[in-house]
Design a protein that fits this description.
This protein is mainly α. It is about 65% helix and about 0% strand. α1 packs across α2. About 0% of the residues are buried.
Length: about 60
């Protein structure tokens, strides 16, 4: 799901009363928002995206 940053950023504040950003809190916040929000866009991977990612990974490894 494509969870907008504005929605996931609000979740920790409401859940804990604090706005601390830690990886576990962020992951949980995004998951909660994704489960409770209707109409979110589903992200799909296409062949072009996979090819670009593979090319970038290969290019990053050259000369190492």
């Amino acid at each position: 799901m494509d969870v907008p940053a504005t929605l996931s950023a609000r979740a920790p504040v409401f859940a804990t009363g604090q706005g601390r950003k830690t990886d576990p809190v962020n992951a949980r916040s995004v998951a909660v928002v994704a489960l409770r929000t209707k109409g979110l866009r589903q992200v799909v991977t296409d062949d072009t995206t996979v090819a670009i990612a593979a090319t970038l990974q290969l290019a990053a490894g050259v000369g190492v």
